[in-house]
Structures are given as structure tokens and as C-alpha cells.
Prior knowledge:
alpha/beta, six-stranded mixed sheet, 31% helix, globular
Amino acid sequence: TITITLPVAGSAPEALDLLLAIDTTGSMTDELNYLQVELDSIIASLRRIRPGTDIRVGLVVYRDEGDEYVTRRFEFTDDLANLRQHLGAQQAAGGGDYPEAVDRAFAEAGRFDWREDATKVMLHVADAPPHAEHAGTAWEQALPLRARGVHIVPVAASGVADDAQYLMRSMAALTQSRYLSLTDDSGGGLPHQEPDVPCYVVTRLDGLIERVVASLLVGRRIEPQADAIVRTTGDYDRGVCRSTKQPRIAQ
Length: 251
């Protein structure tokens, strides 16, 4: 533990801007349905963890060039019922090839009216990287988000391969966030590739999202209760991995 004393008084943000950035191509049906059902519960949990927080939620959905649309955006609002209505109207379709228009979605994210005094979180739910020729553009769009203090929280869905995992984990590290991924423990959807990390804890997704966003909101890491843990891989201890296993990507 390293303690750093600053010559100023600190105060936790009293507002949260949460942007849902969701890949809505055909392979994302289960994940989209999940968020449509669980959004209210996740927001309610955040309100319990930090009562009085001024929460706004925005939405950007994206597919790929040649689909019915490339991006759709719905501005930040504190009217959760209105946002839920927009989210509920979305359907997963299109796509076809593996890469999607991730760079276009990140460009849209940069155009939202993020509040300076709020904790800023972009929940990126996806299973594919940008097209190879647009990977650099995706990075370029992520850098202004970082400069504005936006934490990019990737949620890797079924079908994520090494290139998508690398990009999503890197963006989480770039913005001082956490990389989340789905596993086959859910029992639904397509097969999920195990994350290429030597240690991790598996819990329900709603609780995981709540803890990670709440950690960014309150400024300290929130770990799951013992009865919430489905299984543990490696020697995991409160965010520290004690395993000596070399990641597969590094081999």
C-alpha cells in the first residue's frame, strides 16, 4: 500500500455520466437482450451504493458499413424510462464479417456532452474489433476520451478473439479502467473464449458491472462478497494476481 498526501482537499464526484456503447450486429442478441432487461437493476444498485448521485445515461449502438445503419446515438438523459425505451427498441442484426465499425462508435462517443465534474464511464459491449485498416482510427478516437477523463469499460462478449481482446484490454488500461468478459458459466449464447489472463474471478454480470462502475464512482476497488463468486482461476487476491503463468498472447 502506497499512501500519497496531496496539499489539497479531495472530494468524490457527485455525478455519473454512463454511456452504453453496444455492438448490435447479429451475434450480439443475447448481450443486447440482457442489457435491455438489467439496466434498471444496475442503475438502482449504483444509487444504493452512492445515494444522491446525479446519474445520466446515454446510448450509442453500432453495426458496420453496408448495414441498415452504422451508428445511432441517444444523448445523455436523467430520464431513465426514456433511455430504456430507446434501448428496448434496438435489435441485433446485420454484420456478417467479423470486424465492425468500432471506430465510428468511438467517434460518436467523443461527441457526447460529458460533464467535467462527473465520473465518466463508457461501457463498451462488443465481440469484434474494428476493421484492420481502421484500428489506428479507433485508437485516435479513444485518446480524446482519455483526455476528458472517460473510463472505457469493455465487456467482451462471445466470439472475442485475440485481436479484439488485445484492443479492449489496452483501452481499459489506457483509461485506468477494468476489462470485463463473459464466460461459458452463463450457459447461454455462443462459446466464450477464456480471457488470456492468469487469474480472475467469475461472478454474475450484473454484479460485476455494478462493482466496476461503483469502484470508479467512489474511488476505491470494490471486491465481490464470497457468496457471489462462481469460481476463481489462478491465485487471485483483491486485484493482485500471484500466478507465474505466462499469458497465451505473450507466448
